Recover the amino acids of this structure.
């Protein structure tokens, strides 16, 4: 295949490498421009999952869309299989899309309401000519079986299915062209709890079977702990902490991460009631842009380095967005 | 109210036999049915015009401004031509111009509206500002200017009407495209790698068909009115070919002597316009479209 595949298969380079990715929404009606994603960096190894967590508006979804080039990046670098995606011509980018796919949050809106399941699943196959047209039907059946659905339903329309079934179809569409990398943007948050567990299990078994890498965007910390190998915590467009699941969950360094973990409800009514009664932590994480040495004693403006500090085990924490005092 | 419907549905089910058809029709369905019936009537008369017209519409006779008789059902006009035949054949001209002109306006509006709404940015600005220039003129003023410049003929009239109604059609298309292009399934198609052209035609266009259909029907109604008005002012198809607006203009001065010569074409214009308005309202309710335009 392409050179790109060779680079990935030698096992040293990560599948996806994101460096200093920024997304800026232009100024509108007298409002200043908004930096939705601010110099975000992470790697995703083949067959691994990076969980991206943070509160609403922290830039998780925008990061995912920018990685997939569905959102124009302001600066930075996104390399998939060794190829730089930012600035890539649109025709080459369309060809690269067979390596990276997207599972959207809302299965009720992400399927074309007037296309049958067969048409929906056949579309990526035709676009990328990944199977000859005589074999498309066969492949559609295969895909439905892959996501544990009855191939007989392929001539039905999306409105005939439940949320969980639709999300299975969305996943099948994403897998149609045998991608290496799938961005899952809150793939289960629109589903009921029982269905959530089924879809999470499906995603995990597909990862094992097909060696997929996921960028798993979610606000549910428990689910991320379940599916992810590594976690990045976002706040205000920045990654404030990044590391393995054990590092981040068991030894959170950044005050925002700690607050986020503390916000998870405890399944004990007495304790939980007590916690809710206490005033919620009112922390101002905005913090001024530091001049001079940061809290770890490094002057980033002078040295030109990113305001991020990684220890020997790969556990990184930002020196920004710390509350005052 | 929904209770009643529910019970009626149950009742229908209990009685068996293709049950749900016995539900009361909604007002939209009734309007749509009426509109389609009127449209069918008009199309039949138009297509069969040469066959069903009792006389040659240009043939004069000795009896001018005659009252209705068994021979001339709607009487004759000032130079003795059969009013009914002129009405039937004249409808042909009027509806042909209307149909072709609106089709052209729809085609142009569809292309410009999709381009403008989907591509956005500077393309959107340029297209919409150019269309605004056309939009800024009153319809009649613009139509009169074009026809006066090019001379009154059927092709010129068609062109004029098409130009005049293109901006409105483009706007009707552009509006919903602006929102549909941000819908999840469009983003999903983009992430799959579907080409932009296919996204527009397969993923965006089908979502915006309903408002376009309704708007087209309304535009047809307006166009009939515009064409007859232009013809009335002498800017329509040149004589002796009959057309409704022209008939009205010729008959005006004999209104007191032979009221039917005015009432007949006026009635035809009202009928044709009403057909498309009824159709549009029926479609609007059945297709569940909000306000258009």
């Amino acid at each position: 295949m392409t050179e790109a595949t060779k680079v990935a298969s030698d096992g040293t380079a990560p599948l996806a490498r994101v460096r200093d990715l920024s997304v800026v929404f232009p100024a509108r009606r007298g409002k200043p421009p908004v930096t939705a994603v601010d110099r975000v960096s992470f790697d995703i190894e083949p067959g691994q999952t990076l969980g991206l967590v943070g509160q609403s508006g922290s830039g998780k979804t925008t990061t995912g869309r920018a990685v997939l080039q569905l959102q124009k990046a302001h600066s930075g670098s996104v390399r998939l299989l060794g190829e730089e995606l930012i600035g890539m011509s649109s025709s080459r980018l369309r060809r690269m899309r067979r390596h990276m796919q997207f599972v959207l949050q809302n299965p009720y809106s992400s399927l074309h309401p007037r296309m049958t399941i067969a048409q929906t699943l056949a579309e990526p196959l035709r676009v990328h000519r990944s199977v000859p047209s005589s074999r498309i039907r066969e492949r559609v059946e295969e895909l439905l079986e892959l996501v544990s659905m009855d191939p007989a339903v392929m001539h039905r329309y999306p409105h005939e299915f439940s949320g969980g079934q639709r999300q299975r179809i969305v996943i099948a569409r994403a897998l149609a062209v045998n991608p290496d990398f799938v961005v899952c943007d809150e793939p289960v948050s629109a589903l009921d709890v029982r269905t959530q567990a089924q879809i999470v299990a499906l995603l995990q078994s597909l990862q094992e079977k097909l060696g997929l890498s996921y960028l798993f965007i979610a606000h549910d910390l428990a689910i991320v702990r379940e599916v992810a190998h590594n976690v990045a915590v976002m706040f205000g467009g920045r990654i404030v902490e990044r590391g393995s699941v054990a590092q981040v969950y068991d030894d959170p360094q950044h005050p925002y991460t700690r607050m986020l973990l503390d916000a998870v409800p405890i399944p004990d009514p007495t304790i939980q009631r007590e916690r809710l009664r206490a005033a919620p932590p009112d922390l101002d994480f905005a913090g001024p842009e530091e001049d001079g040495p940061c809290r770890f004693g490094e002057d980033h403006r002078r040295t030109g380095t990113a305001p991020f500090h990684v220890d020997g085990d790969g556990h990184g924490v930002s020196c920004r967005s710390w509350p005052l005092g | 109210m929904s209770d009643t419907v529910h019970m009626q549905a149950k009742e229908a089910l209990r009685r068996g036999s293709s049950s749900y058809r016995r539900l009361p029709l909604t007002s939209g369905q009734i309007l749509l049915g009426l509109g389609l019936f009127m449209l069918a009537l008009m199309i039949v008369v138009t297509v069969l015009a040469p066959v069903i017209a009792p006389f040659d519409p240009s043939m004069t006779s000795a009896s001018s401004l005659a009252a209705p008789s068994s021979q001339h059902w709607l009487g004759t006009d000032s130079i003795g031509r059969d009013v009914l035949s002129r009405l039937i054949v004249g409808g042909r001209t009027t509806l042909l111009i209307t149909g072709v002109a609106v089709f052209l306006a729809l085609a142009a509006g569809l292309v410009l509206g999709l381009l403008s709404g989907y591509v956005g940015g500077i393309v959107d600005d340029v297209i919409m500002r150019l269309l605004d220039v056309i939009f800024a003129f009153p319809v009649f003023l613009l139509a009169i200017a074009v026809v006066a410049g090019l001379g009154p003929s059927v092709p010129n009239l068609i062109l004029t009407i098409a130009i005049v109604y293109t901006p409105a059609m483009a706007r009707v298309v552009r509006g919903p495209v602006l929102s549909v292009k941000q819908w999840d399934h469009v983003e999903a198609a983009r992430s799959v790698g579907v080409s932009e052209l296919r996204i527009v035609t397969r993923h965006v266009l089908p979502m915006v068909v309903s408002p376009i259909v309704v708007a087209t029907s309304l535009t047809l109604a307006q166009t009939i009115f515009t064409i007859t008005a232009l013809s009335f002012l002498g800017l329509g198809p040149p004589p002796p070919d009959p057309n409704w607006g022209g008939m009205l203009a010729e008959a005006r001065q004999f209104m007191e002597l032979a009221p039917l010569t005015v009432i007949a074409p006026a009635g035809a214009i009202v009928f044709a316009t009403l057909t498309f308005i009824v159709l549009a309202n029926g479609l609007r309710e059945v297709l569940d479209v909000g306000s258009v335009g």
